[in-house]
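**User:** Everyone, produce a chain:

**Assistant:**
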Amino acid sequence: MVKPTRVTNSIRALRFAAGEMTQAELAERIGVTRQTVNAIEQGKYSPSLEMAFQIARALDVALDQAFHYPED
């Protein structure tokens, strides 16, 4: 059983703010499949720290603008 992540993200909104970038375009920029981007956006998969930085850079935002962790 996969443990759900508490990390959330704003990738979908940021893609649209970046000229309506598609999942496929983002995937190509960071070297993964479109399905991986989709899983990350839906919170079904947490990217590695390295991939998270790549996503933020591809979207031209700070890491904490793309990914969020609750403060409890």
Notes: The beta strands are 8-9, 67-68. The chain has a mean pLDDT of 93.
